[in-house]
């Protein structure tokens, strides 16, 4: 388990990119958890999103969201350095 946890809803548009493989390869300290539902159905239907250490991160496209997730991960990791 990583020191940064990224949770992703299986039904969200962010899954159009292989977020689990991308993030775990780029950041060995990260654990990506795929869930059936994160109970943010209103947001899930409208925008790609994920939770980074329980903080909602979202974007207009999966790629924009992924970039914002990377930034959030770097901010979380900075706490441990």
Indicate the topology:
Layout: E1 4-9, H1 19-26, E2 30-35, H2 41-46, E3 49-52, E4 55-58, H3 62-78
The N- to C-terminal Cα distance equals 18 Å
Structural class: alpha+beta
Uncertain stretches: none
What are the secondary-structure elements, in order, as H or E?
EHEHEEH
Give the strand line-up of the largest sheet. 2-1-3-4
Average the pLDDT over all residues and give the rounded result: 90
The total of helices stands at 3
Largest sheet: 4 strands, mixed
Helix content: 25-40%
Radius of gyration using CA atoms only: 12 Å
DSSP summary, beta strand count: 4
How many domains is the backbone divided into? 1
Shape: globular
Strand content: 15-25%
Give a quick summary of the entry.
This is DUF1450 domain-containing protein. By secondary structure, the protein is an alpha+beta fold. Helices cover 38% and strands 25% of the residues.
Could you please describe the fold and organization of this structure?
This is DUF1450 domain-containing protein. It comes from Virgibacillus kapii. The protein starts with a strand and ends with a helix. It is α+β, with helices and mostly antiparallel strands. β1 (4-9), α1 and β2 form a beta-alpha-beta unit. It has one domain. The chain contains 3 helices and 4 strands, in the order βαβαββα. The chain has helices at residues 19-26, 41-46, 62-78, and strands spanning 4-9, 30-35, 49-52, 55-58. The model has no long low-confidence stretch (mean pLDDT 90). Strands 2-1-3-4 form a 4-stranded mixed beta sheet, covered by helices on one side.
């Amino acid at each position: 388990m990583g020191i940064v946890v990224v949770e992703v809803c299986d039904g969200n548009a962010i899954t159009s990119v292989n977020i689990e493989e991308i993030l775990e390869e780029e950041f060995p300290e990260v654990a990506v958890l795929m869930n059936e539902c994160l109970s943010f159905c209103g947001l899930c239907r409208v925008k790609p999103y994920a939770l980074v250490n329980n903080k909602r991160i979202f974007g207009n496209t999966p790629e924009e969201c992924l970039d914002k997730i990377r930034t959030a991960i770097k901010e979380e990791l900075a706490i441990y350095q």
